[in-house]
Design goal:
- This protein is 81% helix and 0% strand.
- The chain is mainly α and 106 residues long.
- It has one domain (7-104).
- Helix 1 runs antiparallel to helix 4 (84-104) and helix 2 crosses helix 3.
- The longest helix has 26 residues, at 52-77.
- The chain is globular and about 55 Å long.
- The model has no long low-confidence stretch (mean pLDDT 82).
Length: 106
């Protein structure tokens, strides 16, 4: 039943607003908080368990791997011409867009 509301249009507009608000909050709070948000989501996707001991250990491992990967990209790929926060925000932004589109089923 459609009550005259264009669901697809409203849904896309809300997803754009969510992405913009997340980018603003990342710019205000910093990339490390954004990394924490991403690591938590990656951990929940990879480990389908409710045991906090496993999730906490996995979160620590994934965050260490993410930071080491960021340092590798900054040192080897970008030849120290970028900061690690740029790498975290770029790759995290791509992953966040994936999460938004996956959750919306566009």
């Amino acid at each position: 039943i459609n009550l005259g509301i264009n669901y697809q249009k409203i849904s896309k507009q809300l997803m754009i607003i969510i992405a913009i608000l997340t980018s603003i909050s990342t710019a205000l709070v910093g990339p490390i908080t954004f990394l924490g948000l991403l690591v938590a989501n990656i951990t929940y996707e990879l480990f389908k368990t409710a045991k906090h001991s496993i999730l906490l250990s996995a979160c620590i491992l994934i965050s260490i791997l993410a930071l080491l990967g960021g340092v590798f990209f900054v040192s080897r790929v970008f030849d120290y011409n970028a900061t690690i926060s740029v790498v975290i925000n770029f790759l995290g932004g791509i992953y966040f867009i994936y999460l938004v589109l996956k959750g919306n089923k566009l």
